[in-house]
Design a protein that fits this description.
Blueprint (H helix, E strand, L loop, with lengths): L34 H19 L9 H31 L4 H20 L3 H6 L3 H10 L1 H4 L2 H11 L5 H10 L5 H12 L5 E3 L5 E3 L2 H10 L3 H17 L1 H21 L5 H7 L5 H13 L2 H14 L22 H11 L5 H12 L3 E2 L11 E3 L7 E3 L6 H23 L9 H22 L3 H37 L6 H16 L17 H5 L5 H17 L4 H16 L6 H7 L7 H22 L2
Parallel strand pairs: 3-5
Antiparallel strand pairs: 1-2, 4-5
Helix pairs in contact: 1-2, 1-3, 2-3, 9-12, 10-11, 12-13, 12-20, 14-20, 14-26, 15-26, 16-17, 16-19, 18-19, 19-20, 19-23, 20-21, 20-23, 20-26, 23-26
Length: 614
């Protein structure tokens, strides 16, 4: 449908914001009408913070005192969303704007003050015997709304030490970031990017970005090999330093676990979200049993690329050349169509996102890069994109739309205190939204090349968000167990562990490449956030399991699966993630949940084989 204010970016140019028609920019007036309105909200929060301080000392008095404090926190929380996002979304649309940046910082300063003046709350609540609090919860329906919030606070408390212990831990806390800070310095501040000469005589400096582009676009294997070897050489040259830094991470985690009375580092990492360790163990065991489809994919790639040898620098190259453009005006309808399996109501909400100014579409001078969905309580979700008409951009839009619908349904169904959700479930709706979109795109693909590109996109994203992340989780679990069992941690040991994992996953499909065994040193998550990456894989497994229900041939099963999925979204953060997922029919401690991923992966590989005629 042609419209007067249609706009498409001209490749290679960067428009100013005022050159973009308003229907491609978000409308922030749903958060605050204007800056005066924002200032009023800011002052309201200031006075709420002051009056919250006067509640100190009242919690132990009974139901009324505790309820008043929780309700005051809800009011402050809702105001915080509005004043933070109004300033920060404005800032992200043009980060050169100093006046808005100042307002954004003003909010951060207020938040710091809020945290300081409210820091009495948790210790005062936790000082009340839990049995007393439980009696209050049973006696008051109003207070019972906060039951899960209160119970999880007491649950966290189980491993808090006495005052002297906590004091010691806080002193030790100053060393916590040293291994990661040193790692960051070594890999960014102090790094010298290697330079190589390509087969055509061209000189390239290999920043990480350049290196990725080369592996994804350069059709000459000798160039990819040269880039891969040069890039990893700097890690190999410093492998003893990397091993010493990683040992620092492992020793620190083991110190914390033991000091707080956990049996293992994994127990310590999973306690907060109440995840049983069997989830991680089952994930790792399940993935290892399901590596055959992964190997089948790489055997297919090896044949399709027609290469004699096949190594890690050959795994990211596209199998066909295909440069389709996806204009935004067209894609909006496709996204709406793709969620039809989730029902009319869901579809209408997605339509609203496009029609009611929830999305900031195109790149402009000064705009923040990347993409996100902002969960603005009291308004609606907002999405920032830098839409450039590529296939990746379309899937990013589908992804962020999944996050946004999660926010919308949770905010509609939950009281403020449970409106947010944890990382452990967050990537389920985003990946499910992508999966539905892939189904639609495959159905509508106009050429064999397009189908191949779509299938490869889907397969690669499972390979990188599932198989690779489980391999990583496996590595960090094995490494942590070395220190838990008083074993030495050296570069040789870590390299051997990593090399063994590569063999377990890829088998004979990958040819040996000496430098690959130091790849662990290149993964920042190992140094910054241990035991984090497994969550990408569990989210992906949950999505695969849920999609089996959403795609089920029998309409009753389908309807029931959709109903349970939508109630998962509406549940927000009202329970521990394992319980929420269980209610939606996903049990991550069961092997068949993990198998759902490999089943889906294999089906995609079979389709790709037939498209390629191999
Ligand atoms: Zn996401």
């Amino acid at each position: 449908m042609p419209q007067l204010d249609t706009f498409r970016p001209v490749p290679g140019t960067l428009p100013t914001r005022d050159a973009i028609p308003s229907r491609y920019t978000w409308d922030l007036t749903a958060i605050c009408r204007d800056w005066d309105d924002w200032t009023r909200a800011y002052r309201d929060l200031e006075s709420e913070i002051e009056s919250f301080a006067t509640l100190q000392g009242t919690l132990a008095q009974g139901v009324d005192g505790l309820l008043a404090a929780f309700r005051a926190m809800d009011v402050m929380g809702a105001l915080s969303y509005r004043i933070w996002y109004f300033a920060s979304l404005h800032y992200d649309q043009d980060q050169r704007d100093n006046a808005i940046n100042a307002k954004r910082q003003q909010v951060q300063i207020l938040f710091a003050r809020q945290q300081q003046t409210g820091s009495w709350f948790n210790p005062e609540l936790l000082a009340i015997p839990f049995d007393t609090v439980r009696d209050w919860l049973d006696a008051s329906a109003d207070l019972a709304v906060y039951r899960f919030a209160i119970e999880s606070l007491f649950h966290e408390q189980e491993h808090v030490l006495d005052e002297q212990g906590e004091r010691l831990m806080s002193f030790a806390g100053r060393f916590n970031s040293v291994p990661h800070d040193s790692y960051a310095a070594l890999t960014t501040a102090d790094v010298k990017c290697p330079s190589i000469t390509l087969s055509g005589g061209e000189q390239v400096t290999l920043s990480y970005g350049q290196y990725r582009v080369l592996l994804e676009t350069n059709r000459r294997q000798e160039d990819r090999a040269a880039a891969y070897r040069a890039f990893h050489r700097s890690y190999a040259d410093n492998q003893n330093t990397y091993a010493a830094l990683y040992n620092g991470v492992l020793q620190r985690d083991w110190f914390h676990a033991r000091a707080r009375g956990y049996e293992t580092t994994l127990d310590a990492a999973l306690h907060g979200n109440n995840i049983p360790i069997s989830v991680v163990e089952n994930l790792i065991a399940g993935a290892k049993q399901a590596v055959e489809p992964l190997r089948r994919y790489h055997r297919l790639r090896r044949r399709a690329l027609g290469v004699e040898t096949y190594r890690l620098f050959d795994v990211s190259l596209p199998l066909v050349e295909h440069d389709a453009r996806y204009p935004y005006d067209q894609v909006g309808d496709w996204i709406v169509d793709s969620v039809a399996p989730l029902g009319d109501e869901y579809q209408q909400q997605v339509r609203r996102a496009f029609d009611e100014g929830w999305i900031d579409v195109y790149e402009n001078v000064g705009k923040r890069s990347g993409a996100y969905s902002a969960p603005v309580y009291g308004a609606h979700p907002y999405m920032l994109l830098n839409y450039n008409e590529t296939l990746d951009a379309v899937f990013t839009l589908a992804h962020e739309m999944g996050h946004s619908m999660h926010t919308l349904l949770a905010h509609q169904a939950q009281p403020f205190v449970y409106a947010g959700y944890t990382i452990f479930v967050a990537e389920v709706p985003s990946t499910l939204s992508e999966a539905l979109f892939l189904d639609l795109m495959l159905e509508r693909a106009r050429s064999r090349e397009e189908r191949i590109v779509l299938l490869q996109h889907a397969i690669d994203s499972i390979a990188s968000t599932f198989y690779t992340q489980v391999l990583f989780a496996d590595f960090e679990l094995q490494a942590h167990r070395l220190v838990e069992q008083d074993q030495p941690v050296t570069a040789d040991v870590l390299n051997a562990t990593y090399a063994a994992l590569l063999r377990e996953y890829y088998g004979e499909v990958l040819d040996e490449e000496e430098v690959s065994c130091v790849t662990w040193a290149r993964i920042p998550h190992f140094f910054s956030t241990p035991y984090y990456v497994y969550q990408y894989a569990t989210c992906f497994a949950s999505t695969a399991r849920l999609m089996q229900g959403v795609r089920a041939p029998e309409s009753g099963t389908r309807a029931e699966s959709v109903r349970r999925y939508l109630s998962l979204l509406g549940a927000g953060g009202s329970d521990y993630p394992m319980n929420l997922l269980a209610q939606a029919g996903v049990d991550l401690s069961r092997p068949d949940t993990v198998r759902a991923v490999s089943t889906e992966f294999e089906a995609l590989v079979v389709r790709l084989e037939s498209e390629l005629g191999r």
